[in-house]
Design a protein that fits this description.
It is globular and about 55 Å long. The strands form six sheets. The protein has a five-stranded mixed beta sheet with strand order 1-18-17-16-15, with no helix packed on it. The chain has a four-stranded antiparallel beta sheet with strand order 2-25-24-23, with no helix packed on it. A four-stranded antiparallel beta sheet has the order 3-4-5-6, with no helix packed on it. The longest helix is centred in the N-terminal third of the chain and has 14 residues. The protein is mainly β. It contains two helices and 25 strands. This is Aldose dehydrogenase. Keywords: Signal.
């Protein structure tokens, strides 16, 4: 997921960006980095529910134990049920641009799925002969789980700049189900993450029908996209709501080093490419990036100096496994592991890190907490798997 790219930001442009960041963003905080103490939780068992998936990317649980929706990057959506196993591809999925990192990516259920049966899909869409970008839309899942009806796009990343890299993309509804948040990569064009007239390198916030909320931070600003909620992101790969602090968290790929966990605040600038804890692919500092904090730019809550290539993530807030309480599970692609970060219940800082599933030697793409209180992960491989992880009895 790390594609070498050179770029340059003029000093005048940097000055404008930093002035904007100082005026809008909250004060920058102090990043918490490695090393944190290694910890060991309960021994686990790993159950393979599905094999033979082609680069699966995301999963979503249907209510009432009705099954698990799974996206495959080449453009297939399937459902797995205990009774029937893995289904044939569901009909009605939009055409996707399946090249390099692009294809059919995230999936999410509408907050009112019981009534509407809407499901949301995020995918790479070809826009012209050279470029593609992220599109999000929804359709109605049939009661027999065999097709999607009336699919319609409600959001398109503009302009279209990707040649196959850094789409992101993750979807998350807020706990009340009022708004949909979309995490977008900068399409391997770093400077665009700081440009408010571009939707690259942004978290955007829209209503479930695609309308823009009136209180979005840049709604009334000229030459800024009204959908933007935060900016200065590189390549988000995980997004989830923290159940204890009730805020949105983002997992982002750094360049060479500097993978980040960020707490997302409205109007905030998270720095890329002006500030990073990573370095260039030649091992040298990135010329445009500061090596020290910059006033007005938000420091990551936590970062890894050596990138695990973090991916999907899920907070654990289920009483059925007390040893996992106040933990965040994060997938790792490069390090082929499931990372568990333990939080202090009092001050919320990370106090320990555990690495799981390293013996499987598979890229962990998506991570979710199931309705049974166990952890479910997808492995991003030609022969991808859906795994269920639970403590040994």
């Amino acid at each position: 997921m790390r594609i070498k790219k050179t770029f340059s930001l003029s000093s005048a442009f940097m000055a404008v960006v930093l002035g904007l960041a100082t005026a809008i963003a909250p004060a920058s905080g102090r990043a918490q980095s490695e090393p944190v103490p290694a910890i060991k939780g309960p021994a686990v068992t790993v159950e393979t529910l599905i094999s033979g998936l082609e680069h699966p990317w995301a999963l979503a649980f249907l209510p009432n134990d009705a099954g698990i929706l799974i996206t495959e990057r080449p453009g297939r959506l399937r459902v797995w049920t205990k009774e029937n196993g893995l289904s044939e591809p569901i009909a009605g999925v939009p055409k996707v641009h399946a090249q390099s990192q692009g294809g059919l990516l995230d999936v999410a259920l509408a907050p009112d799925f019981f009534r509407s049966r809407r499901i949301y899909l995020a995918y790479a869409e070809r826009r012209d002969k050279q470029n593609s970008a992220t599109t999000v839309g929804y359709g109605v899942l049939s009661s027999d789980l065999k097709r999607i009806d009336a699919f319609r796009p409600i959001f398109r990343q503009e302009p279209a700049l990707s040649s196959g890299q850094h789409y992101g993309v993750r979807l998350a509804f807020d706990p009340g189900g009022r708004d949909l948040y979309i995490a977008l990569g900068e399409n391997n064009h770093p400077a665009t993450a700081q440009q408010l007239d571009h939707l690259q390198g942004k978290v955007v916030r829209i209503r479930p029908d695609g309308m823009v909320p009136r209180d979005n931070p840049f709604r009334s600003q000229r030459d800024a996209k009204a959908e933007i909620w935060s900016y200065g992101h590189r390549n988000p790969q995980g997004m989830a709501w923290n159940p204890w602090t009730n805020d949105l968290w983002l997992a982002e790929h750094g360049p060479q080093g500097g993978d980040e966990l960020n707490r997302i605040q409205p109007g905030a600038n998270y720095g890329w490419p002006l500030r990073t804890h990573g370095q260039g692919y030649d091992g040298q500092p990135i010329p445009e990036a500061s090596t020290t904090p910059i006033t007005g730019l938000i420091e990551p809550f936590h970062y890894w100096s050596v990138s695990p290539a973090i991916s999907g993530m899920a907070f654990y807030n289920d009483e059925r496994v007390p040893d996992w309480q106040h933990s965040l599970f994060v997938g790792a692609l490069k390090e082929q592991a499931l990372i568990r970060l333990q939080f202090d219940e009092e001050d919320g800082h990370i106090i320990g890190e555990e690495r799981l599933l390293q013996d499987l030697k598979q890229r962990i793409r998506d991570v979710r907490v199931g309705p049974d209180g166990y952890i479910y992960v997808l492995t991003d491989e030609n022969d991808g798997q859906l795994l269920r992880i639970q403590p040994k009895p």
